[in-house]
Amino acid sequence: MNSVYVLEAGKVDNFDWIGFENGLQKIFDFRIKKIGPVDVPDFAFNPEKKQYDAEKILLDMQKIEFEDLEKILIVTDKDLYALEYNYIFGQGDCPGRQSIVSTFRLHDKDKKLFANRVLKESIHELGHNFGLSHCPDKKCPMHFSNNILDTDLKEAKLCEKCGNLLAMID
Length: 170
Prior knowledge:
The chain is of the alpha/beta class. It has a single domain (about 5-165), classed as Collagenase (Catalytic Domain). It is about 30% helix and about 25% strand. It has five helices and nine strands. The strands form two sheets. A five-stranded mixed beta sheet has the order 2-1-5-9-8, with helices on both faces. A four-stranded mixed beta sheet has the order 3-4-6-7. Strand 6 and strand 7 form a beta hairpin. The radius of gyration is 15 Å and the shape is globular. The two termini are about 10 Å apart. The relative contact order is 0.16.
């Protein structure tokens, strides 16, 4: 069975990695394996923005190979941006092999809410890796999040349409 590797880049503190892996396992029929932490590459930092370029991190992590690697999800504590956006919660190749999620703007005093946000954004980015596009259903994790309130409205499970599409792709 192939695996989805979850790579901790930087140090994601106070996070329930076991619960996170179990949550991903419920959605994606793959073995989930956590690795890391590893350092975030310095060259990805933009001193003017005081943020990290998600694309540069993804390019740097392309070199990671494991025999059973199907997808790799990078989870980082760094604030990310992409060319068209001031900030992003995550980014994923669609379809593709790798994605990244930032916990930086997902934090909350409520640890359960924080973990749920990270899980929903991770489902979103891995969904892209598996070929799913954005969904109009605001409760589906594949719906685009313009802000944290959009993320909070989502559920940590795919809507019926996206779930069926994922089943057809597997």
